[in-house]
Amino acid sequence: xLSIVSMKKYSSGLEIKKKIVNALQKGPISLxxxxxxxNIGYNTLKRHSEELEYFKIIKIEKTKEGSxxxxxxxxxxxx
Length: 79
Prior knowledge:
The protein is an alpha+beta fold. 41% of the residues lie in helices and 15% in strands. Helix 1 (13-23) crosses helix 3.
């Protein structure tokens, strides 16, 4: 008897970019919160976000400090 093993389907770059833009329709969000919301790795999101920023679809701002811990974070918004 053969068992079927579920394989994780990887999203294409275009699908990831669509998810980013759709998530930003509601307003700006930090890269860490977007990572949690979309369940996609931080570095993957950062790379695709930087590409979207290059084409002037979104804007990435580095804040000086956060409200909770005082550390800088990346805030992403639609352009």
